[in-house]
Design a protein that fits this description.
The complex is a heterodimer of chains A (355) and B (626). Chain A has 355 residues and is mainly alpha-helical. Chain A is 70% helix and 0% strand. In chain B, the strands form two sheets. In chain B, strands 1, 2, 7, 8 and 9 form a five-stranded antiparallel beta sheet that branches. In chain B, strands 4-5-3-6 form a four-stranded antiparallel beta sheet, sandwiched between helices. The longest helix of chain B has 53 residues. In chain B, helix 10 runs parallel beside helix 19, helix 11 runs antiparallel to helix 13 and helix 16 runs antiparallel to helix 17. The chains are: A mainly alpha (355), B alpha+beta (626). At the A-B interface, helix 10, helix 11, helix 12, helix 14 and helix 15 of A face helix 2, helix 3, helix 5 and helix 6 of B. Chain A: It comes from Thiorhodovibrio frisius.
Chain lengths: 355, 626
């Protein structure tokens, strides 16, 4: 990328970063009722529409995702092809959500309208390439179509899953696994000034994901160390391959948390349950991401860091709106997304918790 | 063109769509209705059913490879019930076809595994490993031999290590790795089974009797298994053929029904309504209104109302333009469309484009021989070129006619007597002719532009827009001044006044439409005014290329003959052939590009907005795939 393009992108990211929520603003949002919140976010039409609560929640989620993807579209404009591909790959997660929804829908023989209502409406560059997928009428047909495209490996595994136990979990885990592996591979292809900050950024993301997956697979689903390790994606930062091999062998949650490398171990020092670990791991990622946004000189790393933080903010807003739409008591909503849950020193911690 | 608004009962929509499609004169207007009450979309369910039915038919036809077209018969109304029944029927047929497709996929998979198994055994043979030992599981050791996707190998290696096993990757083919996993038997076996399943591990069984059979016997076994698979494939193909023959009529009928249902689906975005009332808007050529009314009277069973009116001034940009249907002009029309579609009311530039294009091409590439080759080549390739063959033939004939004018045949200028003169005989006269041609072309283009703006009601644009009446006035003054300058040495009072007056008018007009600081306005107006002078001067001189290329053609021919004269008999023949080919391909191509450039830039930019849209009426697409 030329110096001029870097300058432009960096300026763009700096300008857009002013939209990010600080803890005070997040706290103020918590105090708002559903109508005021919807008004601030210009979502009154969705709230006032004659739709079911579920449909309203979906519409709100769709609107927030559209906001995020609009930011992606703005940021990729001055980028070179490799940078653009990385940001689009990151955003392609929403297309994979659609793929998972489709697979789940076919596995459980859901009505096509129900499936369609649960799909995100994505811009052309991020949509699943094949409309054929949407027109399939059963699992086997879906898998055949999938096998002809870039997800052929997934499709083959899906077929085994379908034939053996009709269990979508393994398939969804494989989709996530492949997605994050691709993201890391793309990151590691960068050279020069952008490589280090991108490694840190992706490392922070995968460190959080690996901690959560390890806890979930080992202690919630009761997976063996082998199976747990197989589902993980080694991080380019703290939780690399050798460390993961060691960690998955730990027998209890406490043992595993104590064996984490610093600064994760210190952060998890007195965490008692998975929910608390999730909050703290997310806070760690948010802190690292914010650091890259404020300190890095790489335009692409800052742009990706901004998008990650923006997504966290939007998820916080979504949690607030969802809570309101489902009629949850304000205390319950606040306890789920309290911006002071981790102390002011965390910066973006509260927002990360919502993510 | 008239705007029509058809109000009818919702249940008559399929009949109305058929009636409109049969006339082939109704271009749907997709604007939302002005009345908020008409916000329903009555055709939505119909469209959903149609899309699903067509998708099913497409998938069946892809597998069954059915290429026949349905027999037309009489057009019939396809209501939602009929479409729904068809959709259900196609759903059942697709279920059959889907099973067959799945069977084919299964066979492909078996073949793939068999090939991998052969490769694995061949590899083991090279390694001199006793497969019998691997096949006989011991009490203490556990073996797995098989395939995993290449990208899973590294993670699987770590995962099996945690279960106390070792992974050996002994062969890589395509995207797969052949692996052997060895470890102690025991309680961790179950852990491993789950990991292998997640990793997409595919076992490659070691054939029975592996230790007792010779290599030839094993090869014969594999051959037999391949033959068995081929036999199963042949049987499956026969099954598919039988299935297709059995359902051919049903599928053709389904295709026919979908063709008849398609018009209503196409209309869907234009249909709005409330309760049982539907409203449909569109554009219809004035001459076709009566025919449309008769067709609706004949088809619709329930009362309807058809309102017609002329388009309003604000609607003009939305009114579609009927394209040229002349067969001879069709290729020229295609080239015009590359620039844009004429706005409704604008003169269709295709005839003018065709005439001026041929004149310019002929003058720039005037040669009886080369023209004949172009015309002949276009005629011989008429099946490939289709409508563009006429274009090639016309260009060739034009080149031939100018070849007679210049007395040139394959660059030789002494075989034919010139009707006028060879270009190199008097280049100055040639340049003068080109200059006059350019001046006439620019004046004609500006005049057409002015007429087109008046035709679409843009009076101010006709007067003051770029290439409007004031610009034309400036050009006349500029030309008169130029003539005076060349003949008597002075620009002249009147031409000077006309030029200054018109430029001042344009500058004032521009000033009034600019916003911003005064300094910036002065700068922009000055540059734009100067640009007007430069543009007209350079555009006029741009036409000198018409003569320049005719001179170039003659000069290139002379160069080739000079080269040929320097060589022996064989060299002369080769040089002449290659030289003429060079002239035909390279110079012909360049001339074509130059003519297009003159047309698009000096012509179209003056008189043709190109921002209209084509009249695309609703039609029944019989004989085409739905």
């Amino acid at each position: 990328m030329s110096a001029a393009a870097h300058a432009y992108l960096n300026t763009r990211v700096s300008v857009m970063s002013t939209r990010l929520l600080d803890p005070e603003r997040a706290k103020a949002l918590l105090e708002l009722g559903l109508p005021e919140l919807a008004e601030q976010l210009e979502l009154q039409s969705v709230i006032e529409d004659q739709l079911s609560a579920h449909a309203k929640v979906r519409a709100v989620e769709q609107a927030l995702i559209a906001t995020l993807l609009a930011d992606v579209a703005v940021l990729i404009r001055p980028m070179n092809p490799a940078e653009r591909a990385l940001l689009l790959s990151w955003a392609r997660r929403y297309a994979l959500f659609n793929l998972k929804t489709l697979i789940r829908g076919k596995l459980y023989d859901l009505d096509p309208t129900t499936i369609r209502n649960d799909l995100y409406d994505l811009p052309p560059g991020l949509r699943l390439a094949r409309d054929e997928l949407f027109r399939t009428e059963n699992v086997l047909e879906l898998l055949r179509v999938l096998e002809r495209g870039p997800f052929s490996l997934l499709a083959r595994q899906a077929r085994e899953v379908y034939e053996q136990k009709r269990e979508p979990f393994a398939l969804e885990a494989a989709i996530d696994q492949q997605y994050y592996s691709d993201l890391v591979r793309q990151t590691m292809r960068f050279q020069g000034d952008s490589l280090q900050p991108l490694r840190r950024l992706m490392g922070a993301l995968l460190d959080r994901i690996d901690v959560m997956w390890m806890l979930r697979f080992r202690f919630a689903y009761g997976f063996s160390p082998s199976e747990t390790f197989y589902q993980l994606v080694p991080s380019p930062r703290l939780l690399h391959r050798e460390r993961l091999l060691d960690l998955v062998n730990r027998e209890t949650l406490r043992q595993l948390l104590d064996a984490l490398p610093e600064p994760l171990a210190a952060r998890m020092a007195d965490a008692e349950d998975v929910l608390e670990v999730q909050r703290r791991a997310a806070a760690h990622q948010a802190e690292e991401t914010r650091r890259i946004l404020t300190q890095s000189a790489s335009g692409v790393a800052r742009a990706l860091a901004y998008l990650m933080l923006r997504e966290m903010d939007l998820m916080l807003l979504f949690a607030l709106l969802q809570g309101g739409l489902l009629g949850l008591p304000p205390d319950v909503i606040k306890s789920a997304v309290d911006p002071h849950a981790f102390g002011a020193a965390n910066g973006g911690g509260a927002l990360a918790a919502a993510a | 063109m008239q705007h029509v608004r058809l109000m009818l009962m919702t249940e008559d929509l399929p009949r109305a769509s058929l009636a409109l499609a049969e006339t082939g004169q109704f271009h749907p207007d997709t604007r939302p209705p002005e009345e908020p009450a008409l916000s329903n979309l009555p055709g939505h369910d119909y469209r959903e059913t149609f899309v699903q039915a067509r998708s099913r038919l497409d998938k069946i036809v892809r597998i069954a490879e059915l290429e026949d077209s349905p027999i037309l018969g009489q057009a019939q109304v396809i209501d939602h019930q009929v479409l729904d029944a068809l959709n259900q029927k196609l759903g059942t047929l697709w279920e059959d076809a889907s099973h067959l497709e799945e069977d084919f996929r299964g066979l492909d998979e078996e073949e793939r595994v068999l090939r991998e198994q052969e490769a694995a055994l061949e590899n083991f043979a090279n390694l001199k490993v006793d497969l019998g030992v691997l096949k006989r599981k011991t009490r203490f050791l556990d073996f797995y031999i098989g395939l995993v996707p290449r990208e899973n190998v590294s993670r699987l290696e770590g995962a099996v290590a945690l279960a106390g096993h070792l992974l050996l990757n002994y062969l890589q083919r395509d995207n797969h790795a052949h692996v052997v996993i060895i470890g102690p038997c025991g309680e961790r076996e179950n852990q491993l089974a789950s990991v292998l399943s997640s990793a997409g591990f595919q076992a490659l069984p070691i054939p029975d009797g592996i230790t007792d059979k010779t290599t030839e016997e094993l090869e014969a076994d594999f051959r037999a298994r391949h033959q068995a698979l081929e036999a199963r494939r042949a049987a499956l193909e026969q099954q598919l053929t039988d299935w297709r023959d059995k359902h051919r009529e049903q599928l053709l009928d389904a295709r026919r029904v979908l063709l008849l249902a398609e018009p209503l689906v196409t209309l869907d975005p234009s249909i709005h309504g409330v309760k049982s009332l539907a409203v449909l808007c569109g554009w219809v050529p004035t001459r076709a209104i009566d025919r449309l009314r008769k067709s609706l009277n004949a088809h619709l069973q329930l009362p309807f109302a058809l309102e017609t009116r002329r388009p309003t001034a604000a609607e003009r940009p939305l009114v579609p333009t009927v394209p040229t249907h002349n067969q001879v002009l069709a290729p020229f029309s295609t080239l015009v469309k590359q620039y844009g579609i004429p706005q409704y009311g604008e003169i269709d530039p295709t005839p003018l484009f065709a005439v001026t294009f041929l004149l310019m091409f002929g003058m720039m590439f005037g040669d009886v021989g080369h023209g004949a080759v172009i015309a002949l080549a276009a005629y011989l390739a008429r099946n490939k070129l289709k409508s563009f063959a006429a274009f090639g033939i016309a260009a060739g004939v034009s080149s031939m006619l100018f070849g007679f004018v210049f007395g040139s045949i394959f660059g030789v200028e002494h075989w034919l007597p010139a009707l006028w003169m060879p270009p190199l005989e008097d280049p100055i006269t040639m340049l003068k002719v080109a200059l006059v041609w350019g001046i006439v072309f620019i004046i004609a283009a500006c005049s057409l532009g002015i007429y087109n703006r008046i035709a679409v009601g843009n009076i101010q644009g006709a007067l003051l827009a770029p290439h409007g009446l004031v610009n034309l006035l400036f050009y006349f003054g500029f030309l008169a001044g130029g003539w005076n300058l060349a003949s008597s040495g002075g620009f002249g009072l009147w031409p000077g006044l006309i030029v200054l007056g018109s430029l001042a008018t344009l500058a004032v007009h521009q000033w009034r439409h600019l916003s911003g600081p005064v300094g910036e306005k002065i700068l922009v107006v000055f540059i734009e005014t100067l640009d007007t002078v430069i543009v007209y001067l350079s555009n006029t001189l741009s036409f000198l290329r018409v003569s320049a290329f005719s001179l170039n053609h003659a000069a290139l021919a002379i160069a080739i003959f000079t080269l040929a004269d320097m060589l022996g008999a064989f060299g002369t023949i080769v040089t002449l052939i290659l030289g003429n080919l060079f002239i035909l391909v390279l110079e012909g191509g360049i001339v074509m590009i130059q003519v297009m450039r003159l047309q698009y830039y000096e012509g179209f930019s003056r008189y043709f907005s190109g921002d209209g849209h084509e009249f695309a009426p609703l039609r029944l697409r019989f004989g085409e795939s739905p």
